[in-house]
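Practice problem: predict the structure.
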Amino acid sequence: MTALEAAINELINCSFFTKMTRQQITDLCQSGTIATSCHREVLFQSGDEATHFGIVLSGAYKLVKQTFSGEDVIVHFAIPGDVIGAFIMTQAKPTYPVTVVAMGSSRFLKIPKATYLQQWSQTPELIFRIQNSLSERMELLQIQKALSKSSLAQKVGILLLNLKEKNTNPDLWTLPLPLTRKEIADCLGASVESVIRVMSDWSKKGIIATTDQQISILKPEMLVKEIHKNQKEF
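Answer:
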């Protein structure tokens, strides 16, 4: 079995390809290759010609946008099953709008632009799913924008709860991706020291636990109370 065939077997159970046959998925992955990324390795660089898009197979990737002042801001965390870069494939000469960086050892199925134009763009259901995925990302960005004047504790708490929702197992309260305090700070536009203070306080209270960059929410009801408490204090 080739690496591509093995990846297709993984995608059969991916919600993005629900109700599709193996042959249909194979056609959508035509000429695809597997990229294995080390921690912090760049998969796509902002500004480069966008020749490929694809799907996260394992691990996680962060989508990073640089501000005018040269600071990196994380605009999205992509986990297995997430599609990256598809929406720009119909442009004449697309360039990647963000830099895509691996979070720990990760795998990505890179699919050439030609396959998108020949296969994906001819499948209305897939276009709908891509648009739905983008709408969900925009909704999260709008939530972050609405929280711009909220306390940092409230921002961190809501971010953790939103990331928890990415976990396909509703009973598992461990975030489905490795996450450092620095990455949380980059996502929220805050200082690392401030994020450490908030999360250290919650760790002492037994609300969360962190091991090897994995964050578990031990007492979700208390986390919600902390969010509301900080909202009132603010």
